[in-house]
Amino acid sequence: MPKVGMKAIRQAQLINATLTVIDRVGLAEASIAVIAKEAGVSTGIVSHYFGDKNGLLDACMRQILTDLYLAVERHRFQAEDTPQAQIRAIIDGNFDLTQVAAPVLKTWLVFWTNSLHQKNLQRLQRVNDRRLHSNITAQFARVLPREQARQAGSSLAALVDGLWLRMTLAPQPMAHGLEDARELCYQNLALWLNTPVR
């Protein structure tokens, strides 16, 4: 009889192993056998909990999206309740340390690529896109006319995604690049609000 809580432990173990393997060899070479070996379990355990590699990728992305949501909420909770501070907190959450580790960055890229062809991943991507855009736009709408707030939200969300892509494709980990990415977003925010960058 399995121990209580073993399912959650095994799933977390397999998700971490998947992130590690994707980082090391890419998705194409990240077979169930390689992932199982990394996690120190049998391939049957992987199939039992996730069905196949697509199910495992889906679970990885759900975990990363949950971590992203929690990071953004944490930053927003700590920020003042002004549009500028809340948008900066959304930016900071998107570039939180939970989201910029190399395995997570590479898995994001795999996710974006595969979401073009897999409906379940497309749905997760749409949810993520809408959440980022609507959260930013709602804050801009507190101080800008509706249409301008929508444009500002689209602009900043596109900048966040573009900087993410650049970080993912960078040959070296982005230590100072992370601060540069945030600063570019802060500058975009300041332009829309016509305020100095702080």
Automatic annotation (TrEMBL):
DNA-binding residues (ranges): 31-50
SUPFAM superfamilies assigned: Homeodomain-like, Tetracyclin repressor-like, C-terminal domain
Pathway listed: Amine and polyamine biosynthesis; betaine biosynthesis via choline pathway [regulation]
GO terms of molecular function: DNA-binding transcription factor activity; transcription cis-regulatory region binding
Domain of life: Bacteria
A Pfam family hit: TetR_N
Gene Ontology biological process terms, A to Z: glycine betaine biosynthetic process from choline; negative regulation of DNA-templated transcription
Domain HTH tetR-type positions: 8-68
Presence of keyword Ribonucleoprotein: no
PROSITE patterns: HTH_TETR_1 (PS01081), HTH_TETR_2 (PS50977)
Gene3D superfamilies assigned: Tetracycline Repressor, domain 2
InterPro entries (UniProt xref): BetI_C, DNA-bd_HTH_TetR-type_CS, Homeodomain-like_sf, HTH-type_TetR-like_transc_reg, HTH_TetR, Tet_transcr_reg_TetR-rel_C_sf, Tscrpt_rep_BetI
Keyword terms, alphabetized: DNA-binding, Repressor, Transcription, Transcription regulation
PANTHER family linked: HTH-TYPE TRANSCRIPTIONAL REGULATOR BETI, HTH-TYPE TRANSCRIPTIONAL REGULATOR RUTR
NCBIfam families per record: betaine_BetI, PRK00767.1
Function comment: Repressor involved in choline regulation of the bet genes.
Protein name: HTH-type transcriptional regulator BetI
Encoding gene (name): betI
